Amino acid sequence: MPIRIHNFAGRLGWNARKYLPHLASESYLKLQFITRGKSQKKYIDYFMNSEEIPQPNVVNLETINRCNSTCEFCTANKNAEKRPYMRMEEDLYYSIIDQLRDWDYRGHLTLYGNNEPWLDTRIVEFHKYAREQLPNAFIFMSTNGLLLDIEKTKQIVPYVNQLIINNYCLDMKLHDNVKEVYDYVKAHPDEFKDVDILIQMRYLKEVLTNRAGSAPNKQATEKVVKETCLMPFTDMWIMPNGKLGICCCDNFEVTDFGDLHEMSLKDAWNSPKYQELRTKIKDGRQNYPFCKHCDFIDAGLRMDAVNDILKNNEMHGARQSMFRK
């Protein structure tokens, strides 16, 4: 099926997020920290002990730093945004994609950060170039869908493996334009057989994580979070100004792990500054000031990628052991 709707535990989950937002957030995060901790530490051990620093699993490349939604959990919503407006220079964008090509990058790529990608009028052409240069990468677009229509959907699907439409609303109903896209795709499945279109039903006023204290509706407490975090090991976070930030929680762009105007992508990812961050974070967020009160955890894409890598490593190790016997 080329299109599907995910509603995160259905009506029960929706009502929990709507009427018990902080309890729902804390319960979910506690569950994820408990169930994901072992795999996270195992992957971090693999990463830190590798002879060559592994590639990122996800490259997040934000080409414009603006959004058109009012999601209350995000500092990038149009009522809370504080960043100076910026679009990535085209020469820099093409250089980044070329460097990923030369690096033989095969992980996930998204031209998205704390923003709405359709606000960048170059977004289809940018995806086209990325697809041409990175045929083995998993390219996905994440959009709030407010600007989406059938024509835009047709334009983007040749260049992405997955189109994620986050339908932020208050009534658990699809926006009219998203419903039109849904109905069209359902009626013309052959046109979309090579792409996975996922509509996620999201509550506009949901409480998620404190995002290192930047979330408008959930400020960080003085509680120190001692669990580790995958993001410095899985994600390359590229801002429109060409700098590498720590992760999506740095919406105010205060961290700096390299300027791609001055150094290569690979050198930035492998830099001593990045390795210092990873050395501290591997033993807990309390060791890095930006992260010590942050309760963010990604239990989806990153964990899927990490588990696949760990599984493949175990299979490879088993084969090697058999050959030695």
How would you portray this structure in words?
- The chain is an alpha/beta fold.
- Helix content is 38%, strand content 12%.
- The protein contains ten helices and eight strands.
- Strands 1-6-5-4-3-2-7-8 form an eight-stranded mixed sheet.
- Strand 4 (138-143), helix 5 and strand 5 (162-169) form a beta-alpha-beta unit.
Query: Which stretches of 5+ consecutive residues score pLDDT under 50?
Result: none
Structural class: alpha/beta
The count of β-strands is 8
| Physical arrangement of strands within the biggest beta sheet | 1-6-5-4-3-2-7-8
Nearest-integer average pLDDT: 94
Radius of gyration: 20 Å
Number of helices: 10
H and E order: EHHEHEHEHEHEHEEHHH
Shape: globular
Identify the quaternary structure here.
single chain
Helix content: 25-40%
Describe the main β-sheet briefly.
8 strands, mixed
Distance between the termini: 45 Å
Observed structural traits:
eight-stranded mixed beta sheet, 38% helix, globular
